[in-house]
């Protein structure tokens, strides 16, 4: 049975067991290695991708559940690695070992789409459930805050540019 879906804006057809978790379809069949395996029970967040724009744990999600869905992985977040969250992560040197970072970034970007000007408490709540083995939680929180500021500036500058046009 062939399952059709869109991954990072490209139409894909996969002829694999429909019970295969999305994580393994991405990593083993499409060679998208950015999404990581952490716990296998949707508790750590390392495997977070977007399914139809929502942050979703891919390690327990069967491929059949995403038929005809739009999936975005860390590789598809931005072509140039210039998404505000990625820029903030880089500026604040967030990763230590880096293993959890793709899931952290995908969760943060999804969170900021819903809450573009979060408080520190909202950031902590919004990022809860994403585990960092190195304990860089403070840097993660600071990066989410910085990303919200970068996105706001980007939005302001693009609004000014379109007003001049």
From TrEMBL:
Molecular function (Gene Ontology), one example: 2 iron, 2 sulfur cluster binding
Matching CDD domains: fer2
PROSITE patterns listed in its UniProt record: 2FE2S_FER_1 (PS00197), 2FE2S_FER_2 (PS51085)
Pfam families registered for this protein in UniProt: Fer2, Fer2_2
Keyword Transmembrane: no
Signal sequence segment: none
Domain of life the protein comes from: Bacteria
Keywords from the UniProt entry: 2Fe-2S, Iron, Iron-sulfur, Metal-binding, Oxidoreductase
Domain 2Fe-2S ferredoxin-type, chain residue ranges per copy: 1-77
Keyword Manganese: no
Protein name per Swiss-Prot or TrEMBL: (2Fe-2S)-binding protein
């Amino acid at each position: 049975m062939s399952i059709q879906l869109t991954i990072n804006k490209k139409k894909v057809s996969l002829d694999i067991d429909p019970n295969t978790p999305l994580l393994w379809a991405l990593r083993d069949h499409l060679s998208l290695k950015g999404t990581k395996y952490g716990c296998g029970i949707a508790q750590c967040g390392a495997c977070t991708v977007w399914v139809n724009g929502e942050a979703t744990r891919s390690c327990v999600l069967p491929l059949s559940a995403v038929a005809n869905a739009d999936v975005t992985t860390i590789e598809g977040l931005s072509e140039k690695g210039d998404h505000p969250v990625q820029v903030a992560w880089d500026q604040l040197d967030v990763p230590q070992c880096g293993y959890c970072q793709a899931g952290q970034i995908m969760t943060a970007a999804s969170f900021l789409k819903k809450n573009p000007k979060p408080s520190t408490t909202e950031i902590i709540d919004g990022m809860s459930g994403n585990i960092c083995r190195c304990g860089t939680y403070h840097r993660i929180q600071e990066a989410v805050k910085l990303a919200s500021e970068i996105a706001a500036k980007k939005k302001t500058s693009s609004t000014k540019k379109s007003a001049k046009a």
